[in-house]
């Protein structure tokens, strides 16, 4: 049975039937564990590569179904949104040159996808969050048209309601309303799998939890969403909120989100994780289960346990337990879901090597990590690393406070090196990939640092869209070169070789940091606001953010001149006395050409941007001036 048969649980009877299959699968898993059915003589690693597709302007390229058709056979599949794709790597035995083989295979598959996407007019990018992604891109129209994705959207909407707020506080603050779970599609990751023997699962899983924070701290690559600089790994906050199905109540009641780090150390068996997930999270998705598990077990054949897999796939642990079958024998894996996609393939494999080495070598240093590190500290470290990256200070073993840089450099890299040696990984592979981590930590240049530093420089001499597009373009160039991110120079506006503003939407270049007045405000306040903020236009709005008028510098000067000529006092006049009512407005998804046409034909200097009657931005001659300057510089550079 394929995932395509996953569907919405429509009524109680379907939920009850599906739960019976889940419990049956749990019994089968328990039996297989008790009777040593699992593969233990071979340990494999694997990976899943998610990627973004972009058009020549660096914006999303929503052609996944067409690209997959052209790719034909292979390990390629859809993702939640039509602008993402996934590559499922073939498992490799965890020994010898498996890491360099993983890099080779990844390069080969990524290049194959890139070639096909380029033939269709786009390109691909490995990044945790596409810098140029816009709110309109996560509209439901970009949902991949497959039953399982439609069922997931419907299930989340039923549990949470259609509209929800996204609130993330970082260097900037993002506060927006959304009506689609497709927001999660902004995230693209690089998932790494490690096969684990059943009797080692508990200890390895707890190690994975303990080291999540430091390995994430040096791998962060998703600092910007919708032009806001948020967490070092904003994917974490975004995933937690976009899939959160909980309702806010009047009373304090603990409830765990479906995207979770977990609540405690694992004590006895992988079964405990499944039991907790079944206990805490109601069935969200169902499936047409046709597998006759008992019969297969009687015949000595390992069942797929599809019902359990489907339920497991609707609970999003950052370290996910996995059950699978290879060569007819069942196996267990830990899936690391914390790594972002990119910045380059070699960075990704280096992140994987660091994590794999730690999982294989940690118990030689810490026999039982649960005795050395409090679980609450492991969880707190994870969220701290998501926010701060390499600037994090961890609460580590023995109640020590230690910086991420010192911990990784002095303690964890040697452990990872020993762990890789223990797996008989080639010494050249160990030196290469752990060397990348060491240099990245030494230089302090993670993918997130590079993006934030580049953005900070670029927005001083351009607008937000130009800065984000330049960063996206520079990322693509650097990925093609293949050098790890710690060697990248910062993005420059000269990277905007193919920037064509004629395709811009209003929301991509409008000013969103707005100063507004109310109709009862006095004119002296208006005059000071225009002077202090060096602006020429002030929208007038009510308490619900509805646009009700507009005041211009020219209007105000005219009013003061008239009052002076007449010997009148303007002190009693308010905004409502002089404001322009029902000003001409524009929609955020209108094109830049449409905005220019309105300004020219109406002979006005600004356009308030309105959606659902609410003011969300403003565009004026100043916005167009910045675009013009950039274009002139581009033309000059082309001489």
TrEMBL record:
Alphabetized Gene3D superfamilies for the sequence: 3.30.590.20, CBS-domain (3.10.580.10)
Keywords: CBS domain
Keyword Glycosyltransferase attached: no
CBS domain boundaries: 510-566, 579-634
InterPro entries referenced in this protein's UniProt entry, alphabetically: CBS_dom, CBS_dom_sf, GCL_type2/YbdK_subfam, GCS2, Gln_synth/guanido_kin_cat_dom
PANTHER family: CONSERVED PROTEIN, GLUTAMATE--CYSTEINE LIGASE 2-RELATED
Protein name as catalogued: CBS domain-containing protein
